[in-house]
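Quick illustration, no need to memorize.
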Amino acid sequence: MIVKIDNERYKSIPSFPDYGANQHGQIKRLAPRQGGRPIKPLTPSVFLLKGRPARTTVKIYRKEVHRGRSTTTGVARMVLEAWIGPPPGAGYHAAHKNGDAADNHLENLYWATPKQNSNDRHKHGTMIVGEACYNSKLTKTEVRQMRRDRLNGHTWDALSKRYSVSVHTVRSACNRVSWKHVS
């Protein structure tokens, strides 16, 4: 169902039938509100990760599913569900073609597998890896030195103690299971 509100076309979102999405990434309630209050666009929340938008969400009220409570849902997913249809399979992500998570225009969105989404994040430079990760215990310099030390005969335990990390972390870094981006 398409509804025209303020010269904008909003298409009903199948998983949230009381709400609609326009092609510019705005979400509005389509059903009348209690007490006849005016319908207005929902205000999205932008989650930042390392100072960049990581995801844009809105709070949706769905009585029949959440027992009268609200749920937080991604705007990109809602726009795709409304205009393109449901994801082609389980586990699909709402992905951004230009890498800007705050740009939820329909022409910038598509359904992607987790692998495609990960490849996009690498291509756009938005993948958080290495010491940019908030819980990283090592730096690029330490990983390079650790790999040299291992080639020079240091044991896993000795490296673990030297860098104050677990043996598993040392093995993963030295065997390029983690820190693959460091040469």
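The chain has a mean pLDDT of 83.
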